[in-house]
Amino acid sequence: MDILMDIYIDLENLLKVKNVSKNKVCAACKLQRTQLNNYCKNKVSRIDLAILARLCEYLDCTPNDILKLK
After folding, report:
1. Which stretches make up the HTH cro/C1-type domain (predicted)?
2. Closest-CA residue to 36 (of 58, 55, 57)
3. Which of 27, 33, 36, 38 could form a disulfide with 43, with the two C-beta atoms 3.0–4.6 Å apart?
């Protein structure tokens, strides 16, 4: 029996934990608000690694803090 795991983006929760506003993230990571909202609402089918790297650098975290398995 194969067990498939899904990866989801837990960015919205991380922003709350770190108490960082979406406006600051957008400005620092050069993202449009719509892009960030899509990441926060897990509506991204292909993750842009450059965006992930910028988010990790700005939020001082690793991809494991943003991407989760369920």
Report:
1. 11-66
2. 55
3. 38
Those residues with Cβ within 8 angstroms of residue 14's Cβ, 6 or more apart along the chain or in another chain: 59, 61, 65, 66
Is residue 1 one of the residues assigned to a domain? no
At 1-59, the pLDDT tens digits run 567 788 999 999 999 999 999 999 999 999 999 999 999 999 998 999 999 999 999 99
Token pair in block for residue 70:
């369920």
Domain that holds residue 28: 16-64
Residue 36: exposed, middle, or buried by beta-carbon count in 10 A (0-12, 13-18, 19+)? buried
The predicted model scores a pTM of 0.89
